[in-house]
Amino acid sequence: MRNHTGLRFGWAPPALAVLCVALLLAASPLHAQRDIEGATPHPAVPLPPGGYITLDEFVDFAIIDFPAGPRTRREEPEMLRVEGGHTRLEYTVDGTETATLRLYRTYLQHLQGQGFEILYTGFGDDLHDRRPLDFFSGTNLAWQAAATPDIGYILARSADETQVVAVAFYDRQRNRRIMVNVVDIEDLALLDLQDAEPGPEPEPEPEPEPAPAAPVVQQSAEELESGLIADGRVVVDAILFAFDSDEILPDSAAALQTVAALMDDRPGLTLLVVGHTDGVGSFDYNLRLSLSRATSVVDWLASRHGIARERLRPAGAGPMSPITTNRSEEGRALNRRVELVEVVQ
Fold this sequence. Notes:
Largest sheet: 6 strands, antiparallel
Order of helices and strands: HEEHEEEEHEHEHEHE
Strand content: 25-35%
Strand order of the largest sheet: 1-2-6-5-4-3
Oligomer: single chain
Shape: globular
Structural class: alpha+beta
Number of strands: 10
Number of helices: 6
Helix content: 10-25%
Protein backbone atom coordinates (compact mmCIF):
# COMPACT_ATOMS: atom_id res chain seq x y z
CA MET A 1 0.00 0.00 0.00
CA ARG A 2 1.24 3.56 -0.66
CA ASN A 3 0.68 6.61 1.47
CA HIS A 4 0.53 10.16 0.15
CA THR A 5 4.35 10.36 0.07
CA GLY A 6 4.56 7.40 -2.32
CA LEU A 7 6.03 4.89 0.20
CA ARG A 8 4.74 1.33 0.01
CA PHE A 9 3.10 -0.22 3.06
CA GLY A 10 3.26 -3.98 3.43
CA TRP A 11 3.39 -6.60 6.15
CA ALA A 12 6.29 -5.71 8.48
CA PRO A 13 7.79 -7.32 11.60
CA PRO A 14 5.63 -6.43 14.62
CA ALA A 15 8.37 -4.44 16.36
CA LEU A 16 9.03 -2.36 13.27
CA ALA A 17 5.30 -1.83 12.71
CA VAL A 18 4.85 -0.58 16.28
CA LEU A 19 7.84 1.76 15.92
CA CYS A 20 6.50 3.18 12.62
CA VAL A 21 3.07 3.77 14.13
CA ALA A 22 4.60 5.50 17.15
CA LEU A 23 6.67 7.80 14.95
CA LEU A 24 3.65 8.66 12.81
CA LEU A 25 1.55 9.49 15.85
CA ALA A 26 4.31 11.66 17.30
CA ALA A 27 5.11 13.51 14.08
CA SER A 28 1.75 13.93 12.36
CA PRO A 29 0.06 17.28 13.09
CA LEU A 30 -3.25 15.85 11.87
CA HIS A 31 -3.59 13.80 15.04
CA ALA A 32 -3.12 16.82 17.28
CA GLN A 33 -6.08 18.52 15.66
CA ARG A 34 -9.60 17.90 16.90
CA ASP A 35 -11.33 18.56 13.60
CA ILE A 36 -9.84 19.36 10.21
CA GLU A 37 -11.21 22.60 8.78
CA GLY A 38 -12.81 22.12 5.39
CA ALA A 39 -12.70 18.29 5.54
CA THR A 40 -15.87 16.53 4.41
CA PRO A 41 -16.91 12.88 4.85
CA HIS A 42 -16.80 10.60 1.84
CA PRO A 43 -20.22 10.27 0.14
CA ALA A 44 -20.09 6.47 0.40
CA VAL A 45 -19.26 6.48 4.14
CA PRO A 46 -21.07 9.23 6.11
CA LEU A 47 -20.01 10.49 9.52
CA PRO A 48 -21.60 8.81 12.55
CA PRO A 49 -23.78 10.94 14.86
CA GLY A 50 -21.51 13.19 16.91
CA GLY A 51 -18.49 12.30 14.79
CA TYR A 52 -15.82 14.56 13.33
CA ILE A 53 -12.83 14.15 10.99
CA THR A 54 -9.29 13.81 12.40
CA LEU A 55 -7.47 12.65 9.25
CA ASP A 56 -8.02 13.70 5.62
CA GLU A 57 -5.67 12.52 2.85
CA PHE A 58 -6.02 12.09 -0.90
CA VAL A 59 -3.64 10.97 -3.67
CA ASP A 60 -4.69 10.89 -7.31
CA PHE A 61 -3.26 7.39 -7.94
CA ALA A 62 -2.06 4.60 -5.68
CA ILE A 63 -1.70 0.81 -5.58
CA ILE A 64 -3.49 -0.51 -2.49
CA ASP A 65 -3.49 -4.05 -1.05
CA PHE A 66 -6.50 -4.66 1.20
CA PRO A 67 -6.80 -7.75 3.44
CA ALA A 68 -9.68 -9.86 2.10
CA GLY A 69 -9.66 -12.68 4.64
CA PRO A 70 -8.58 -13.51 8.20
CA ARG A 71 -4.95 -13.51 9.30
CA THR A 72 -3.70 -16.49 11.29
CA ARG A 73 -0.46 -17.42 12.98
CA ARG A 74 0.30 -19.72 10.04
CA GLU A 75 -1.04 -17.81 7.05
CA GLU A 76 -1.20 -14.23 5.89
CA PRO A 77 -4.62 -13.04 4.74
CA GLU A 78 -5.79 -13.13 1.15
CA MET A 79 -5.20 -9.68 -0.37
CA LEU A 80 -7.20 -7.61 -2.84
CA ARG A 81 -5.04 -5.26 -4.96
CA VAL A 82 -6.70 -2.23 -6.56
CA GLU A 83 -5.38 0.89 -8.32
CA GLY A 84 -6.78 4.40 -8.60
CA GLY A 85 -7.48 7.58 -6.69
CA HIS A 86 -7.13 6.95 -2.94
CA THR A 87 -9.02 8.79 -0.19
CA ARG A 88 -8.20 8.12 3.46
CA LEU A 89 -10.21 9.60 6.34
CA GLU A 90 -10.38 8.99 10.07
CA TYR A 91 -13.67 9.67 11.86
CA THR A 92 -13.67 10.12 15.65
CA VAL A 93 -16.50 9.81 18.19
CA ASP A 94 -15.59 11.17 21.62
CA GLY A 95 -15.76 8.75 24.51
CA THR A 96 -16.63 5.09 24.63
CA GLU A 97 -20.37 5.26 25.32
CA THR A 98 -21.18 4.21 21.74
CA ALA A 99 -20.24 0.56 21.32
CA THR A 100 -17.74 -0.28 18.59
CA LEU A 101 -19.95 -3.23 17.64
CA ARG A 102 -22.90 -0.84 17.10
CA LEU A 103 -20.78 1.31 14.77
CA TYR A 104 -19.51 -1.77 12.90
CA ARG A 105 -22.97 -3.23 12.31
CA THR A 106 -24.43 0.17 11.39
CA TYR A 107 -21.88 0.70 8.63
CA LEU A 108 -22.19 -2.89 7.43
CA GLN A 109 -25.93 -2.42 7.01
CA HIS A 110 -25.38 0.99 5.37
CA LEU A 111 -22.98 -0.38 2.73
CA GLN A 112 -25.27 -3.31 2.00
CA GLY A 113 -28.18 -0.90 1.63
CA GLN A 114 -26.18 1.15 -0.87
CA GLY A 115 -25.75 -1.93 -3.06
CA PHE A 116 -22.12 -2.67 -2.14
CA GLU A 117 -20.87 -6.25 -2.38
CA ILE A 118 -19.33 -7.27 0.95
CA LEU A 119 -16.03 -8.99 0.08
CA TYR A 120 -14.91 -9.68 3.65
CA THR A 121 -16.02 -8.60 7.08
CA GLY A 122 -15.16 -9.58 10.61
CA PHE A 123 -15.30 -8.45 14.22
CA GLY A 124 -12.98 -9.44 17.04
CA ASP A 125 -11.75 -13.03 16.77
CA ASP A 126 -13.08 -13.30 13.20
CA LEU A 127 -10.03 -11.30 12.08
CA HIS A 128 -7.19 -13.22 13.77
CA ASP A 129 -6.87 -16.48 15.68
CA ARG A 130 -4.78 -14.89 18.44
CA ARG A 131 -5.54 -11.17 18.85
CA PRO A 132 -7.81 -9.08 16.60
CA LEU A 133 -5.29 -6.23 16.71
CA ASP A 134 -2.72 -8.44 14.93
CA PHE A 135 -4.95 -8.33 11.84
CA PHE A 136 -3.87 -4.70 11.28
CA SER A 137 -0.16 -5.26 12.04
CA GLY A 138 2.02 -3.72 9.35
CA THR A 139 -0.80 -1.85 7.60
CA ASN A 140 -2.09 1.72 7.84
CA LEU A 141 -5.72 0.62 8.13
CA ALA A 142 -5.64 1.73 11.78
CA TRP A 143 -3.24 4.17 13.41
CA GLN A 144 -3.30 2.54 16.83
CA ALA A 145 -5.76 0.38 18.70
CA ALA A 146 -6.12 -0.75 22.28
CA ALA A 147 -5.56 -4.42 23.14
CA THR A 148 -9.27 -5.18 23.03
CA PRO A 149 -11.41 -7.64 21.07
CA ASP A 150 -13.68 -4.74 20.03
CA ILE A 151 -12.07 -4.27 16.61
CA GLY A 152 -13.93 -4.57 13.32
CA TYR A 153 -13.25 -4.47 9.59
CA ILE A 154 -15.38 -4.27 6.42
CA LEU A 155 -14.15 -4.64 2.83
CA ALA A 156 -16.76 -3.84 0.16
CA ARG A 157 -17.01 -3.15 -3.58
CA SER A 158 -19.59 -1.01 -5.39
CA ALA A 159 -22.16 -2.70 -7.62
CA ASP A 160 -20.50 -1.30 -10.76
CA GLU A 161 -17.07 -2.48 -9.50
CA THR A 162 -15.55 1.01 -9.83
CA GLN A 163 -14.99 1.63 -6.12
CA VAL A 164 -13.56 -0.37 -3.20
CA VAL A 165 -14.20 0.70 0.39
CA ALA A 166 -12.40 -0.57 3.50
CA VAL A 167 -13.64 0.55 6.93
CA ALA A 168 -11.80 -0.29 10.18
CA PHE A 169 -13.20 0.22 13.70
CA TYR A 170 -10.95 0.56 16.76
CA ASP A 171 -10.19 2.63 19.88
CA ARG A 172 -7.51 5.28 20.32
CA GLN A 173 -6.98 7.67 23.24
CA ARG A 174 -10.26 6.53 24.84
CA ASN A 175 -12.30 7.48 21.78
CA ARG A 176 -13.97 5.43 19.06
CA ARG A 177 -12.20 5.65 15.68
CA ILE A 178 -13.25 4.71 12.16
CA MET A 179 -10.59 4.58 9.44
CA VAL A 180 -12.07 4.90 5.95
CA ASN A 181 -10.08 3.95 2.83
CA VAL A 182 -11.76 4.43 -0.56
CA VAL A 183 -10.18 3.66 -3.94
CA ASP A 184 -11.88 4.87 -7.12
CA ILE A 185 -10.62 2.23 -9.53
CA GLU A 186 -9.11 3.61 -12.74
CA ASP A 187 -6.19 3.15 -15.13
CA LEU A 188 -3.13 5.32 -14.63
CA ALA A 189 -3.01 8.26 -17.06
CA LEU A 190 0.64 8.98 -17.90
CA LEU A 191 2.05 12.49 -18.09
CA ASP A 192 2.91 14.06 -21.46
CA LEU A 193 6.69 14.56 -21.24
CA GLN A 194 6.78 16.19 -24.69
CA ASP A 195 4.88 19.23 -23.53
CA ALA A 196 7.28 22.10 -24.31
CA GLU A 197 5.77 24.43 -21.75
CA PRO A 198 4.53 22.34 -18.86
CA GLY A 199 2.24 24.17 -16.54
CA PRO A 200 0.16 23.42 -13.45
CA GLU A 201 -2.60 20.86 -13.63
CA PRO A 202 -5.86 22.41 -14.81
CA GLU A 203 -8.39 23.29 -12.14
CA PRO A 204 -11.61 21.24 -12.08
CA GLU A 205 -14.24 22.63 -14.38
CA PRO A 206 -16.64 24.72 -12.27
CA GLU A 207 -20.35 25.09 -12.79
CA PRO A 208 -21.09 27.65 -15.50
CA GLU A 209 -22.26 31.07 -14.37
CA PRO A 210 -26.05 30.73 -14.39
CA ALA A 211 -28.07 33.04 -16.56
CA PRO A 212 -30.41 35.51 -14.82
CA ALA A 213 -33.51 33.67 -13.70
CA ALA A 214 -36.99 34.67 -12.68
CA PRO A 215 -37.43 35.27 -8.94
CA VAL A 216 -38.01 32.03 -7.06
CA VAL A 217 -41.26 31.57 -5.18
CA GLN A 218 -41.02 31.18 -1.43
CA GLN A 219 -42.68 27.99 -0.20
CA SER A 220 -44.62 27.68 3.02
CA ALA A 221 -43.98 25.06 5.70
CA GLU A 222 -47.30 23.47 4.72
CA GLU A 223 -46.16 23.13 1.09
CA LEU A 224 -42.89 21.52 2.16
CA GLU A 225 -44.74 19.12 4.46
CA SER A 226 -47.22 18.20 1.71
CA GLY A 227 -44.34 17.30 -0.62
CA LEU A 228 -42.72 15.12 2.03
CA ILE A 229 -45.99 13.32 2.76
CA ALA A 230 -46.82 12.77 -0.93
CA ASP A 231 -43.40 11.90 -2.34
CA GLY A 232 -41.04 11.47 0.61
CA ARG A 233 -38.97 14.39 -0.69
CA VAL A 234 -39.39 18.01 -1.68
CA VAL A 235 -37.23 20.60 -3.48
CA VAL A 236 -36.64 23.84 -1.55
CA ASP A 237 -36.66 26.32 -4.41
CA ALA A 238 -35.31 29.42 -2.69
CA ILE A 239 -32.01 28.11 -1.23
CA LEU A 240 -29.39 29.91 -3.32
CA PHE A 241 -25.58 29.72 -3.36
CA ALA A 242 -22.78 31.93 -4.62
CA PHE A 243 -21.37 30.89 -7.99
CA ASP A 244 -19.09 27.81 -7.78
CA SER A 245 -19.24 27.94 -3.96
CA ASP A 246 -20.97 26.48 -0.92
CA GLU A 247 -21.63 29.99 0.44
CA ILE A 248 -25.35 30.45 1.07
CA LEU A 249 -26.66 33.76 -0.27
CA PRO A 250 -28.55 36.07 2.13
CA ASP A 251 -31.71 35.80 0.00
CA SER A 252 -31.98 32.18 1.19
CA ALA A 253 -32.71 33.17 4.80
CA ALA A 254 -36.50 33.10 4.38
CA ALA A 255 -36.50 29.62 2.82
CA LEU A 256 -34.24 28.26 5.57
CA GLN A 257 -36.47 29.87 8.20
CA THR A 258 -39.39 27.96 6.66
CA VAL A 259 -37.48 24.66 6.87
CA ALA A 260 -36.65 25.39 10.53
CA ALA A 261 -40.31 26.18 11.25
CA LEU A 262 -41.35 22.86 9.69
CA MET A 263 -38.91 20.94 11.89
CA ASP A 264 -40.02 22.86 14.99
CA ASP A 265 -43.63 21.93 14.22
CA ARG A 266 -42.70 18.28 13.69
CA PRO A 267 -40.14 17.39 16.41
CA GLY A 268 -40.03 13.75 15.26
CA LEU A 269 -39.00 14.65 11.70
CA THR A 270 -35.51 13.64 10.51
CA LEU A 271 -34.28 14.80 7.09
CA LEU A 272 -31.59 14.09 4.56
CA VAL A 273 -30.42 17.39 3.08
CA VAL A 274 -29.34 16.44 -0.44
CA GLY A 275 -27.34 18.76 -2.72
CA HIS A 276 -27.64 18.39 -6.50
CA THR A 277 -25.65 19.97 -9.36
CA ASP A 278 -26.10 20.11 -13.11
CA GLY A 279 -24.14 17.85 -15.45
CA VAL A 280 -21.51 20.38 -16.54
CA GLY A 281 -17.95 19.83 -15.25
CA SER A 282 -16.18 16.80 -13.80
CA PHE A 283 -18.16 14.22 -11.86
CA ASP A 284 -15.90 14.21 -8.78
CA TYR A 285 -15.87 18.02 -8.56
CA ASN A 286 -19.67 18.24 -8.74
CA LEU A 287 -20.07 15.46 -6.18
CA ARG A 288 -17.87 17.26 -3.66
CA LEU A 289 -19.59 20.61 -4.33
CA SER A 290 -23.06 19.13 -3.81
CA LEU A 291 -22.05 17.56 -0.47
CA SER A 292 -20.37 20.79 0.64
CA ARG A 293 -23.52 22.79 -0.14
CA ALA A 294 -25.73 20.32 1.73
CA THR A 295 -23.38 20.58 4.72
CA SER A 296 -23.67 24.40 4.61
CA VAL A 297 -27.46 24.09 4.83
CA VAL A 298 -27.20 21.77 7.84
CA ASP A 299 -24.72 24.13 9.53
CA TRP A 300 -27.05 27.11 8.93
CA LEU A 301 -30.11 25.35 10.40
CA ALA A 302 -28.16 24.07 13.40
CA SER A 303 -26.27 27.28 14.24
CA ARG A 304 -28.94 29.89 13.45
CA HIS A 305 -32.15 28.04 14.27
CA GLY A 306 -31.06 25.51 16.88
CA ILE A 307 -32.12 22.41 14.95
CA ALA A 308 -30.39 19.34 16.42
CA ARG A 309 -27.73 18.04 14.05
CA GLU A 310 -28.80 14.43 14.54
CA ARG A 311 -32.07 15.36 12.79
CA LEU A 312 -30.22 16.60 9.67
CA ARG A 313 -27.90 14.49 7.54
CA PRO A 314 -26.06 16.12 4.61
CA ALA A 315 -25.62 14.15 1.39
CA GLY A 316 -24.33 14.99 -2.08
CA ALA A 317 -25.78 13.51 -5.26
CA GLY A 318 -23.80 15.69 -7.68
CA PRO A 319 -25.21 15.31 -11.21
CA MET A 320 -26.59 11.80 -10.62
CA SER A 321 -30.29 12.67 -10.23
CA PRO A 322 -31.37 15.37 -12.71
CA ILE A 323 -35.04 16.31 -12.84
CA THR A 324 -34.81 17.56 -16.42
CA THR A 325 -32.34 17.90 -19.30
CA ASN A 326 -28.88 19.44 -18.87
CA ARG A 327 -28.83 20.54 -22.52
CA SER A 328 -30.30 23.96 -21.81
CA GLU A 329 -29.53 26.63 -19.21
CA GLU A 330 -33.13 26.48 -18.01
CA GLY A 331 -32.77 22.74 -17.39
CA ARG A 332 -29.40 23.10 -15.71
CA ALA A 333 -30.79 25.78 -13.39
CA LEU A 334 -33.56 23.40 -12.28
CA ASN A 335 -31.06 20.59 -11.69
CA ARG A 336 -28.99 22.79 -9.35
CA ARG A 337 -31.11 22.38 -6.23
CA VAL A 338 -31.43 21.31 -2.60
CA GLU A 339 -33.89 18.57 -1.70
CA LEU A 340 -35.23 17.47 1.65
CA VAL A 341 -35.77 13.69 1.97
CA GLU A 342 -37.69 12.29 4.94
CA VAL A 343 -35.88 9.62 6.93
CA VAL A 344 -38.44 7.12 8.18
CA GLN A 345 -37.27 5.58 11.43
